[in-house]
Design brief:
about 400 residues; Molybdenum Cofactor Biosythetic Enzyme, Chain A; Molybdopterin biosynthesis moea protein, domain 2; Molybdopterin biosynthesis moeA protein, domain 3; 6-stranded mixed sheet; 7 helices
């Protein structure tokens, strides 16, 4: 019995769960989901510091200063970034200061080099002329201005970005707790398959599915574990599946149709099978259930053997499952309207996913097919940036018709 795409996805997502946390460096954790709130135990910046190269002064000492009538102050020292000021600014004095340096005691503002006559004086001049006024606090970054001690910096569930790595580094955090990446075991089945590392015998095909699937697993944040190729024998399949007892989910390609040598369903029947046919094209023969490895029941998603079918069903079903296991909240794809530029026929009473090139022109989106829609034409997936969705009850789409498009993100 065929079920809908939505029903199939719901059944899969109801059987995969958010994984346990792991401790990772902030660089290695990019793209993963934060497992705990991050509370700051310090101020950032920790001290008042200068946002400009210039002179630390008292704002009152610059009152009335102008280019025609500079106010001259005595320079009593220099402070560079990383040094702690050893002198105090008092009436009529200034300290030369670099960006990021701590503000000396007594100073309440920083005047930029450009607003002084520094360019006309020697670097070690004992005096400086101010050519403009400043206000208290000008060009000073206050302690805790970015992050104050005790505040909530990042919330549990945040997907860590490069900017978050910088924030964590500013707090002195090298390690962080994140939801671990799922280990995805990938098995190709079929007597006709040869690994890409071997010469291609007559009548055989290179195993492309493993590599497109593994690349997608990695692209979406999982850890691919390639189990190789299993011949069309049930014990060959189970031997390979048994070799990955730590997998969080098993993904196979091939062996889920109605042929004499389609054995994935037989393997799953020994544990549990949830569904094996979805009302879609390409990708009708797809199975989901569990595989028992020792004391564990591991979710098993059996994808079709045709290369395009395998990629599209992975996109629709495996990608959301992997993201959910990683703790990500947003797992839906963007779907929007476009104008079709080609004719598409749908005679199978199944939801059709047409490989397409989506372009925006004059504020509107347009979709055209990639050409052949054969489920073996893998090059069509390499140039597609979206899928046109033709509903089950729609028999055709003509040029000018409005269609829904599902965007892919690997182009």
């Amino acid at each position: 019995m065929m079920i809908s795409v939505e029903e199939a996805l719901n059944k899969i997502l109801s059987r995969v769960f958010v994984l346990n946390p792991e401790r990772k460096t902030i660089l290695d954790a990019t793209g993963q989901v934060l497992a705990d709130d991050v509370i700051s135990d310090m101020n950032v910046p920790p001290l008042d510091n200068s946002s400009m190269d210039g002179y630390a002064i008292r704002a009152v000492d610059a009152k009335g200063a102008s280019g025609k009538a500079p106010v001259v102050l005595k320079v009593i020292g220099t402070v560079i970034a990383g040094d702690f000021p050893g002198k105090t600014v008092t009436a009529g004095t200034a300290i030369r200061i670099m960006t990021g340096s701590a503000i000396p005691e007594g100073a309440d503002s920083v005047i930029r080099f450009e607003d002084t006559d520094a360019s006309a004086r020697k670097k070690d001049s004992t005096e400086i002329g101010l050519k403009g006024e400043v206000t208290p606090g000008q060009n000073i970054r206050r302690a805790g201005e970015d992050i104050s001690k005790g505040c909530l910096v990042l919330t549990k569930g945040t997907v860590l970005t490069p900017a978050h790595a910088g924030v964590l580094a500013s707090l002195g955090r090298n390690y962080i707790q994140v939801i671990r990446r799922p280990r995805v075991a990938i098995l190709a089945t079929g007597n006709e398959l040869t690994d890409i590392s071997q010469p291609l015998p007559a009548g055989k095909l290179y195993n492309s599915n493993t590599y497109s699937i593994a690349a997608m697993v990695k692209f979406y944040g999982g850890i691919p574990d390639i189990l190789g190729i299993a011949q069309d024998r049930q014990n060959a399949i189970t031997d390979r599946l048994d070799s990955s007892p730590e997998a969080d989910i098993l993904i196979t390609s091939g062996g889920v149709s109605m042929g004499d040598y389609d054995l994935i369903r037989d393997v799953m029947k020994e544990s549990e099978i949830t569904f094996w046919s979805v009302r879609m094209k390409p990708g009708k023969p797809i199975a989901f259930g569990s595989y028992r490895n020792g004391g564990r029941l591991i979710p098993l998603l059996g994808l079709p053997g045709n290369p395009v079918s395998a990629m599209i069903t992975f996109e629709l079903f495996a990608r959301p499952a992997i993201l959910q296991m990683m703790g990500k909240k947003v797992i839906d794809r963007q779907i929007f309207d476009a104008i079709m530029e080609d004719t598409v026929t749908n005679n199978d009473n199944r939801r059709l996913y047409v490989r397409a090139i989506i372009e925006k022109r004059n504020g509107r989106y347009f979709a055209r097919t990639t050409g052949t829609q054969s489920s073996g034409a893998l090059t069509s997936m390499s140039i597609a940036n979206g899928l046109v969705i033709v509903p089950e009850d729609r028999t055709s789409v003509k040029p000018g018709d409005k269609v829904s498009v599902y965007m892919l993100d690997w182009c």
